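<tokenise_the_fold>
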Amino acid sequence: MNSPDGPNDSTDDIPNGDPGIGANDSTSGGPSGGAGSGANDGTGDGRSGGASGGLEAELLALGEALDIPAPPPADVARSVRTRLEGLTTEEPAAPPGRSPETRRPARRPRWRWVAAGVAVVVAALLGLTPQGQAAVAHVLRLAGVEIHVGEPGPLPSGVPSPLPGERRVTLDRARELVAFPVRVPAELGEPDDVRVSDEGRVLSLFWPGTRLDAYDGTLEVVWRKDLPGPFPEQVTVDASPGWWVSGPHGLTYMPRTGADSEPVQRRAASTLIWQQGQTGYRLEGPATSAQALRIATSLH
């Protein structure tokens, strides 16, 4: 068996008994055996073959030279048990004849298991709070909008660039150009301005301080929002899940895959995001989530 600190060079495979196994040499003429080989002289095996006896004596001498006494069995058992459990807290005693300075330091892997357990607990606790969700789930997607939480703050203010192919139209004309239902919130009345963009992909309705975008393509990313914080608030719009993004943030329109147009970036105000059927909506401008929900639920 190996000692706790390294290989044990004990000669367990080499017999330690007396090599002379013959009580009386066969060549002796009597009990005294004066002229014959000695019965227990260490060079014979009770037979006349002296060569084999000499080899055995040399092997035994080599075994004695290599033998290192093993540590007490109690120390070996304790060391093996603690290593198997991964909870070594003390160094095993040095074998007799070996200096303490030559011992290898005992391993203490317990801190790894403790650190792993703490990490699991922290991750679970983070997932229970909006702040924790922002740290764990960095990117969110809903209704064709991809939200990056903790990204750089809002873009500089200025005149926003139009969307690709953006043009003013009437509501009746908009219904002919888009592939989804055109709905107007009764809470706001008829829009002051109507625009269709990106070959009918997006319909934008405008009122003073408020903008409603309806768009096709909820299976792909249409808009990207970069939020410095806080985490979006989960809401419900007519039984459909939604998010309320409070405060100014960066907004990027993502053209269709393969389109020649470049992404359009601007600074956006607080926005409500939700989806009804295959149509995605983003209502930008209301000061509170309650006000935004009243407008959203009045679509007809």
